[in-house]
Each structure stands twice: as structure tokens, then as C-alpha cells.
């Protein structure tokens, strides 16, 4: 079984619903195959939830959706124990986090306390509730959506949680031709209802194992570390890319290489993914410099020499 084949099947299925956003679709699938998670940030109505549902519907796996709201509690995500008076015992009721594919919709509408309930699940693949640790299914993949921070009723995600996402990207408005196709498809039918699973959970798990074995030569590893170092030394940056961010970049690069049919990571894989795998991990100092996290990464890519 080839990772490229699985990637191609998933991409073909999802592109039938998500039109004109090929790069975003590819980033999500690379994260899925690399064992990471995805954060989609954009205004309402551009297809964030549709993309997440299309991914889950293309995999023969259980799917859970959590609609984050200000009154959502951590136990609403992880689960809780409920007393059964007939048997005089407490019974565990698993929360929606116990699903291979989880959509965390509008995650920044919940309070930081509730947002943090996803931290352990995303980082360790397990949940600890009432002193007991419970393993999550494998694969476990989170697609989180959030609205821009200036929107009413949003709580910015803490740095610790942002760092758990392998990539963070935006959907953006579709081009005119793509939007015509989207509107026409929605008027005439419901494309999401037509999606059928094209990949099994086992195939995704096997693909992840293959991705982990993709070779990373010392020069490419050094290139990724140098990029992270450049963000830390930038004068406009107060918090640069952590070692976790470098690891995420390399793992994503392994997945991209595998989807191209290669068994080794090239510097082009790192360079292509850095603009989506690094900026959300960077905090820029306030002031009149006008620098953004995206600009910092772009400068790092320009200044750090790429291996031949």
C-alpha cells in the first residue's frame, strides 16, 4: 500500500465538495497522515466546517462534532461518570472526544478552561478524568475551526494549545468561478450527503506508520532547526518557534514527501510547509514595527540557506 494512493483517494473525494481550495485540502490531509491536527481560522461561511465534515465522511470512521460555546464545560468534551441508582455504581459516559475524527467547531468561543480540555487529548492521545487515564482511538485527528479574534464573543487560544496544531491556515473567499460552482451545487443538491468513505481507519493507521519511516537527512534536519532558530532571534519576536514546532514541521515534511512517492524528505518539503506550520507558534512584539508572524517566517526562509 502506498501513501500516495491513500492521499489521492482522499483528495479526490474531498475536492468534490470543497472547490477551489486545493492547497488547504492538501495541508489537512498531510496533517492527518503525519499524525497532527489542523486549525482553520477565517470568517464564518467560507467552508471551514464543510471541509472538516468532508474529511471525516471520506474516512470509514466515527465522527464527533463539538460546537464550542461560552457555557460548554470540560466534561462535555471528555466525558464524566454518572451514578446509576439501580446498580448503585458510577458508570463512565465517554464524551465526544473519543472519536477518530473530531471537529472542534468555533473553538475560540469557549472559555480557556474548556479549551484546555483538548490539550492532553491532542498532545498525548489520551484523556485523564477523575484520576483515570483513558486511551483515545487511533488514529485521532482534530480539525478545529475558529473565527478571527476581533469577532464578538471570542477567547484567543493560549500559546500552549496553538502549539499543538501541526498546521494553521485560512480558507479565504473563493474565486468567482469557484463560488459559482459552490452556489450551483448547493442549490441543486447537497454534495456532503453524496460523500462515501474511500479510506478505512486501518489504512490511515498504516499510512502513518509508513510516513514515520520516511528518511530525514542531517542537512534537511539542520535546515528546519535553523529556520526555527531564525524566528527566535528576530528582533520583532517575543516568542519564537519551539522544538515542538520544529518536530511538527519535520513530521509534516515526511508526510508531504510520502504523498509525492518519495522515501526521503527534501528541503523543498520543509520550505513549502513552513508558512503554514510555523507562524501560529510565533508571538510578535507590539509596537510600530508592523511585523507579522507570517512575515517573520518569510524572512527566515529568505535568510537561511537551503541545502543543495
Automatic annotation (TrEMBL):
One of its GO terms (molecular function) is ATP binding. Coiled coil: none annotated. This is AAA domain-containing protein. Residues 230-298 form the ChlI/MoxR AAA lid domain. Gene3D superfamilies: Magnesium chelatase subunit I, C-Terminal domain (1.10.8.80), P-loop containing nucleotide triphosphate hydrolases (3.40.50.300). Residues 37-167 form the ATPase AAA-3 domain. InterPro entries: ATPase_AAA-3 (IPR011703), CbbQ/NirQ/NorQ/GpvN (IPR050764), ChlI/MoxR_AAA_lid (IPR041628), P-loop_NTPase (IPR027417).
